[in-house]
Every structure is written in structure tokens, then in C-alpha cells.
Amino acid sequence: MELKEITRDKKQYVIFYLADKKFGVNINQTKEILSNTEMTFVPDSPDFISGIINLRGAVVPVVDLKLRLNIEGQKKNREEKIIIVELDGLTAGMMVDDVKEIEPLTRENIVNLPDLARKVDSDYIEGVGRADKDGELLLLLDLKNVLSNREIEELKKVDS
């Protein structure tokens, strides 16, 4: 993945898939992207937790983003990726079906989600982006708001 030229009017977004749906997250929210990571199942953890991974000696809980966002559908390939993020002092992984590329989006290419399509608690949707090449729409997520404060506290318990 190459980084494209960036200006003040452009932000870089990591473009990824959940089932066959396209999403993006501001690259500033991501620490790294992992693939082929062995995960350990944790009994009695919240439903949306896939397990935990060892990240250079740290135990990191992994959230299944499809489960958390109630997205139905099969993944396109078998190689899931984990996007590592920092949530309120907690390092966590967000499991996605695939990471496609890093795409610069200008402010003009980002619009708010129409009110009719928005749920009351959808603070995790930053907006709707239009990719330069094909004009295809993608939801831009704010991964810091995907989990509630209560859920982050639950994750901290899984972590310890």
C-alpha cells in the first residue's frame, strides 16, 4: 500500500471491507494492520469479542467489527485483517474481512450521513465518503466511538 500525496485539505483513510460492504477509517486512528494473527478464544467475554492476541508481549482484545455493527454477509476471502487502534487508553484490535488500500479523501468528498439513515446511537459514523476513482460511496467510521464507555470497560477486564 503506497501513501499518496497529502495536503491540508486531504485526509488519509484506510479502506476496508466487512462482508461486501466498503468502509473507511482515518489513518490517524490506526496504529497498525495485522494479518495471519493467531487468536485465543476467551470464554464468557462479550459476544462481539473474537478473542485476544499477543502483540509484542501485550495482550490485546479483538473486536469482531461485523458482529459489533450488525453487518450480515459472508466475507470475500479468508484472510481477515486486524486493525490495531487506541481506545481511551486501551489498545484493541478491530477484525475486518480485508483491507484494500489507503485512500486520500478531500473535504469535498465527505458528506454527513442523511438523518433518515442515522440511528440515535450511531456516533461512530463520521460521514460518507466518495472515493476519487469510481465515485463509490463508503461509510467512514470513527473507531473510537464504535464501543460505548461501558463496553470499553468490559474490554479492559478481558485485557486483564
Strand order of the largest sheet: 8-1-2-11-10-9
Please identify the structural class as seen in this structure.
mainly beta
The CATH class name reads Mainly Beta
Dominant shape: globular
Strand content: 35-45%
Assigned CATH superfamily = CheA-289, Domain 4
Percent of residues in helices: under 10%
Distance between the termini: 34 Å
SSE order in H/E notation? EEEEEHEEEEEEH
Question: What's the CATH architecture?
Answer: Beta Barrel
Instruction: Please tally the β strands and state the result.
Output: 11
What is the count of structural domains?
1
Radius of gyration: 16 Å
CATH topology: OB fold (Dihydrolipoamide Acetyltransferase, E2P)
InterPro entries: CheW, CheW-like_dom_sf, CheW-lke_dom
GO biological process, one term: signal transduction
Protein name: Purine-binding chemotaxis protein CheW
Domain CheW-like: 10-152
In short:
With about 160 residues, the chain is mainly beta.
Question: Could you please describe the fold and organization of this structure?
Answer:
Pfam families: CheW. This is Purine-binding chemotaxis protein CheW. The chain has 160 residues and is mainly beta. It has a single domain, classed as OB fold (Dihydrolipoamide Acetyltransferase, E2P) (Beta Barrel). It has helices spanning 65-68, 149-159; strands spanning 10-18, 21-26, 30-35, 49-55, 58-64, 81-87, 90-96, 98-106, 110-111, 125-130, 137-141. Mean pLDDT is 83; it is low at 1-7.
